[in-house]
Amino acid sequence: MTKDSSGDRPWLDPDLREKGRRRLRRSHPRLEDLESEETRELVEDFELHRAELWVQNEELREAQAELTRTRDAYRDLFERAPVGYLILDGKGRIKQANLRTEDLLDAPRTRVEGADFADFVAPADQDAWFLFRRSLAPDMGRLVEELTLADGAPDPERVVRIEAVVAPETDPDDPRFRFALFDVTQRRQAERALQRERDHLEKRVAERTRELRAAWAQRERFLESLGEGVMAFDRQGRITFVNPMALELLGY
């Protein structure tokens, strides 16, 4: 009976050791044919240790392959996302950008990465960006802002909605922030078109109201100037209008 050397390697997983034993039996089926028991024990211990290391190495390779697949999947998700993804430092410099960001900012990634995000903000919204950037802090929650991009954007006016959070792996002394950029240009244009339509309708209502008031005033002046008495009644028979001539005829 051979000694169990697992006490020398307490870090070994029992399942891993059993896998090593099975591999040892497959690779050395005639280990018992060795003449010396001590030799058999040494050989078995050595071969078992090597088998355990081989199994462990295979499991590490599988784990590494799975990590690689996961990393590639997240990298593809980052790169090909339908929204712009950015990683900025605390000074507003762009450290990393995905493909969609190139379309939104109308600039190649070589120009985007390393640039100050303020370079892509329209002059009218520079103050809003300054205040937003000042709010970036390691202990912040989720920040949201809408900014108009500079004229270099593909549309005459490109508006983006920014949602910012702290990167989980951030260093408090050199924080990083994750930005998601959503193109809301069409929504903003629709809102402005709707507002213009509302303003136009309100203007038309105001003009029509003035026209009706003028027409009513003209009608009243006409009725009051008639040489005949004129009276108006509602459905209940109450007098709603009477001109001066009617008052004179009635003696009032």
Structure in words:
There is one protein chain. The chain has 252 residues and is α+β, with helices and mostly antiparallel strands. Helix content is 50%, strand content 15%. The chain has a 5-stranded antiparallel beta sheet with strand order 2-1-5-4-3, sandwiched between helices. A two-stranded antiparallel ribbon has the order 6-7. It has helices at residues 14-27, 37-79, 99-105, 109-112, 126-134, 185-225, 244-250; strands at 84-89, 94-97, 143-148, 159-166, 176-183, 231-233, 239-242. It has 7 helices and 7 strands; from the N terminus they run ααββαααβββαββα. A hairpin with a 4-residue loop joins β1 and β2. The chain is elongated and about 145 Å long. α1 packs across α2.
Secondary structure layout:
Elements: H1 14-27, H2 37-79, E1 84-89, E2 94-97, H3 99-105, H4 109-112, H5 126-134, E3 143-148, E4 159-166, E5 176-183, H6 185-225, E6 231-233, E7 239-242, H7 244-250
Helix pairs in contact: 1-2
